[in-house]
Write a structure and sequence with these properties.
By secondary structure, the chain is mainly α. Helices cover about 80% and strands about 0% of the residues. The chain contains 11 helices and no strands.
Length: about 220
């Protein structure tokens, strides 16, 4: 009811006076000045949003609609980037730095790859659900760096040889797709692949040499 009255005033009285801001714009500015710019209120709001996002990343169910409305409010007030996004990206960097270390220590390479793939998909879904689309590029870059970029060789050492020995084509495809997303990922993968080929070739040569020598000795024995 009250909103309809103000909308009517915006279309009639305010519209006729060019120097006046709309009641909606004036209300946003007053709300920003007297409520959101209060450091205590702003800190509690942002910290609360970040806490909910961290809970969701840890597998808990949260009220996504609530976060979407709060972040939409910050966007309308034109303080989304300054008050929320910068701190959100810092927390994302911290969270996934720890997650990356845990992954490398605990998971074997197939599980590690699919877990990283799922985490990246979850972050894209998070953008669609309540974050600004402008946040996506920076967010995904941080996740890729902390889960992959910082651990390229460690991930490969955990099982590239196994994937190649067992001809795990699907897993190797996921590995290549993930590594191609980060700087120097393909180069590091290529170097490990070359090292694998050299190692296998050396083992094969040793085996063939041993077999040849065995055949030679067997032939010499028969001849005598």
């Amino acid at each position: 009811m009250i909103r309809n009255i103000f909308l009517f005033l915006d279309r009639t009285y305010v519209f006729q006076i060019s120097m006046l801001s709309s009641i909606w714009d004036m209300g946003l500015e007053l709300f920003k000045s007297y409520i959101i710019r209060d450091q205590n209120v702003q800190s509690r709001t942002i910290d609360g949003i970040l806490l909910l996002i961290e809970k969701e990343r840890n597998g808990e169910m949260i009220d996504r609609c609530l976060i979407q409305r709060l972040l939409s409010m910050l966007s309308d007030l034109q303080i989304y980037q300054v008050s929320f996004e910068n701190k959100f990206l810092e927390e994302t960097n911290r969270f996934y730095a720890a997650e990356g270390r845990k992954l490398v220590q605990k998971k074997e390479i197939p599980g590690c790859l699919y877990h990283i793939k799922n985490l990246l998909e979850e972050e894209v879904d998070r953008v669609r659900a309540y974050l600004s689309l402008n946040t996506q590029k920076l967010l995904i870059a941080i996740v890729e760096k902390q889960l992959l970029g910082e651990h390229l060789s460690a991930v490969l050492q955990k099982g590239l040889s196994y994937l190649l020995d067992e001809n795990r084509v699907e897993d190797l495809s996921v590995l290549y797709q993930l590594f191609s997303r980060v700087e120097f990922g393909v180069q590091v993968l290529l170097q490990h692949w070359i090292d694998y080929i050299k190692c296998v070739s050396k083992q094969k040569q040793g085996k063939w040499k041993a077999e040849g020598e065995a055949l030679y000795r067997a032939g010499s024995t028969c001849a005598t």
